[in-house]
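Amino acids appear as letters; backbone shape is given numerically. Here is one record.
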Amino acid sequence: MDPIPGREEIRRGETTDIYFRRTMEILRKQGKDRVRVKAEALVKRMPGGYDYGILAGMDEMLSLLSGREIGLQAMEEGALFFAGEPVFSIEGPYGEFCEMETAMLGIICQASGIATRASRIKRLAGEKPVLSFGARRMHPALSTIIDRNAFIGGADAVSVVRSAEFLGEIPVGTMPHALVLVMGDTVAAIRAFDAVVDPAVARICLIDTLQDEKFEALRVAEALGERLSGVRLDTPSSRRGDFRRIIQEVRWELDLRGFTHVKIYVSGGLGEEEVRSLADVVDGFGVGTALSNAPTLDFALDIVEVEGVPFAKRGKHSGGKQVASCPSCFSRKVVPESEGPQMCGCGEAMENLLLPAMREGKTHSPLRTPREIRERVLLHVARCHSLKERK
């Protein structure tokens, strides 16, 4: 058996928790597997420090549910949401999706976690590019999922060949330490890179492999001159010391000798705090583990109606709900879906965020491209922060 389940195995419920399979066995025997229910997915509490989430993974989840006798209302892929807001509701005979719950939650919990972390890091980086280097920290079967969700959350580019092809983007990257070691010298490595690699690819040299970063930066700058686009510091923690001071020293020496065009990129164990503290002294970030190992957003899927009657477990609000948002002041509220259109306190008509996404197992509307989703995320996050700052 292949340790990586295929799409059809997942659709057959082979990746479900055993208690859902036993539940289906019981319901079929009792003639209850066709009982119609409505269930809603929401995050009760965000990870520490998070004030919002980015919904991701809906494309994969809808694909998983295609052809089933269900209807689904959902926020759009890339939507910004807050704790306590249902991001989708699913309705139909319970037997149609009982054994899909484990997979459904697994998809959106991880995808949304990666997209949200990418959004937070991109917000801290501002106009400086954030490159997704996270694939090497997880199983290769997850590489495209990691990069896709990092990209829609705000990462500017990805390094994995397949991921970039999936996204319709160009893969980006510099060079590994291995190239410098095999060539025996940093300048020899960048000269070889320059001689062989497509001229359209930026010449960015890794400068922390063998010698002091300042002197290596000057050596490669003198070797390539105007053709050198940038240098990358991946300095290991055992040699890093005050990383900010090292970067400032490299910048000073390059500028002093007329290499003001050479940009400085950093990588190596960077997270939100490092990006925040270095954003004003570097030109870009390569972020790996912080994206691929992002905290998952712990969605729960709970039944809120049975045969059209509001009915939920303790601690959950019964009945179907709608999330209304004001297009002017960004105020939001969760209301019973039976209440209909909402008005904001500012006088504006509020918009419903839970929209038809699937009817009778067919996707209701075409999905946006990854770049379209990304642009929407960046716009909404910027607007949200702008309104908060004004308040």
Q: What stands out?
A: The radius of gyration is 25 Å. Residues 304 and 316 are 8 Å apart (CA to CA). The chain has a mean pLDDT of 94.
